[in-house]
Amino acid sequence: MRNDTALGLQEARGPWARLLRFVLYTVLFAVFAGPLLALMIGAFTPTVDPTQFTLFPDRLSLDNLERAIDRNVLDYLLNSFLVVGGGLALQVLVSVFAGYALARKRFRGSAVVLVLILATMMLPEEVLAVPLSVLLADLPVLHISLVGSLAGMIVPVAAWGFSILVMTEFMKEIPTELEESARLDGAGEFRVFWQVVLPLCRPALGVIGIFGFTMIWDQYMLPLLVATDPAQYTLPLALRSLRSDDQVGIGVLLVGAFLAMLPSVLAFLALQRSFIRGLTSGAVKG
């Protein structure tokens, strides 16, 4: 039986082929997982000299973690979780409803709306910094300020062009016959959306969940514009502040960096099946 590789070539057999695959997998593991392992080991290695870093320490210790807790790193971590939790929930909600309207409804100007959504993805954060800070200081209509609050970090990420486009393109591929059958059975608009369309979008939800989590978690410019007190810092912003403090050792920074990286890894592991299924669905449909 012939086994083909992803490139359509016949898979090589024999001891040399197995050795080559072992070497290749080892190199890939070192490249992708090596930095995470090195960061984890460094965070729990009792050393204050970065030149003494080693992958095989004599002993592990929680001293760096204790010093990081004294520097309020856990408070910054909690702020990051609050921001990413609220922001991602709103982002997914906006994306599924906007995607449903753009994909399943026909209205004049829908193409213009898609172009405008795509245009928002082409503007760098530095260009949006000044107008965003003005809007957050005085929200239109409501005339309230979100500066100095976690809400100011959540509201701007509630809508993201990438997530809306992913949901729109995925929902376009759902057969309209399913909706028509549900309506013939007496289902209303919301029931069709909730019980027919949305369950079929789980792969797309996994994709926007992972990318949305990473985008919000890694935000630096937005917390920098909104936070007016160190107690409001998220972890990425706090790491920059801790780095500029001469009293903070390298161990505390490594702990903070490890805590900043770990949630993104866990989020991918939790949603990887939906993520891969979503990419596969897009490849098959495209």
TrEMBL record:
The chain crosses the membrane at residues 22-44, 76-100, 107-124, 144-171, 192-217, 248-271. Residues 77-271 form the ABC transmembrane type-1 domain. This is Carbohydrate ABC transporter permease. Belongs to the binding-protein-dependent transport system permease family. Keywords: Cell membrane, Membrane, Transmembrane, Transmembrane helix, Transport. InterPro entries: MetI-like (IPR000515), MetI-like_sf (IPR035906). The lineage of its organism: Bacteria, Bacillati, Actinomycetota, Actinomycetes, Kitasatosporales. SUPFAM superfamilies: MetI-like (SSF161098). It is found in: Cell membrane. It comes from the Bacteria. It is a multi-pass membrane protein.
